[in-house]
Amino acid sequence: MIHTIQWSDAGVVLIDQTKLPTEETYLTCADYIQVRDGIRDMIVRGAPAIGVTAAMGVALGARDAAASNVAELRAAWNHICEVMAGARPTAVNLFWAIDRMRVKFDALAAAGNDVAAIRAGLIEESKRMHADDIAACEAMGRHGATLMPERGGVLTHCNAGALATAGYGTALGVIRGAVEAGKQIHVYADETRPFLQGSRLTAWELMKDGIATTVIADNMAGVMMRQGKVQAIVVGSDRIAANGDVANKIGTYTVAVLAKEHGIPFYVAAPTSTVDLATPTGEGIPIEQRDRREVTHIAGRQMTPDGVGIENPAFDVTPHQYVAAIVTERGIARAPYKESLKKMVDEANVEAGTNHR
Ligand code: MRU
């Protein structure tokens, strides 16, 4: 079991994903600013993991805020939530998680709880979100396993695994589910330039589980498909628009287009917390632009001439027409996604007793 995110009295403990695969080290974020920085600097990354970390981060902030009454705590709380929401822009799980924590704060305050009880309730809620996320991934694994081939190659892009969630993973959860169901899967992991989540993280965690894995450079995906080595593709997502357009790691769109050309099903696995019904199409999804140095340098060594133009969008959007199915914890959504996704999100809201998204 990989411990991506853990609550401790000393703070939020994160496996440092910038150090993997060569060093397995853990960092304790002792206050909510350090948690925000950990998300921004990609110590922790991956949409569901960002959400759970942020929930624990705001709970930590509330625990340590100077406040002698509920009004003072609320003022501090609003500031803490705003700071946390500035960590990264694309993964909607960040905003979903902060909203869910805000709803909890309001419910605790409305029930007449004092400062100590509100603080305790927020910590409990963040721990519940951690457990819920693992359960959601395991459910995605069971549903998605049915889509995987009995035997053959499955290509994935970026890391949508235990390291990108509270545990088990979304896309890698589907692969784990298939392997647990007895299917013989060989994973092709795109290395995922420029941050190398595929070669550093996906390969690391799949090898820990003994799942057969081959890392390929991103520009090899097409030829692997043409050679018949890939029977299915499964990726995660940072935000899915109401119409089923999928934002995910830069390069995902290229993979989806290649998949269509070769007649290979392209699947997305993501919890309903990644579905953003308030954003009608992928056009409205904010795409994070990251530092040029991620492209200009590899392991500290300069790879481009001084002053050259650089683009570094962290994500792209795959139009829903390319997506064969979207696996959530509630089952398998098919086109038209506008209807199938809405139904699943509505069901999730009813079960959670909230309607805050
Ligand atoms: O920039 P990152 O590493 O946070 O990007 C992560 C991805 O693109 C993942 O595929 C996505 O968040 C889904 S994680 C289950």
CATH architecture of the largest domain: 3-Layer(aba) Sandwich
SSE topology string: EEEHHHHHEHEHEHEEEHEEHEEEEEH
- Taken together, the total number of domains comes to 2
Instruction: Tell me the fraction of residues in β-strands, as a range.
Output: 15-25%
How many β-strands, per DSSP? 16
Query: Which stretches of 5+ consecutive residues score pLDDT under 50?
Result: none
What would you report as the Rg, rounded to the nearest angstrom? Answer: 20 Å
Helical percent range? 40-55%
The biggest sheet amounts to: 7 strands, mixed
Query: What is the approximate shape?
Result: globular
CATH class annotation of the largest domain: Alpha Beta
Bound molecules: 5-S-methyl-1-O-phosphono-5-thio-D-ribulose
Q: Span from first to last CA?
A: 31 Å
Mean pLDDT: 97
Number of helices: 11
CATH topology of the largest domain: Rossmann fold
Q: Strand order, main sheet: write it out.
A: 6-5-4-7-10-15-16
Structural class: alpha/beta
CATH homologous superfamily identity of the largest domain: Translation initiation factor eif-2b, domain 2
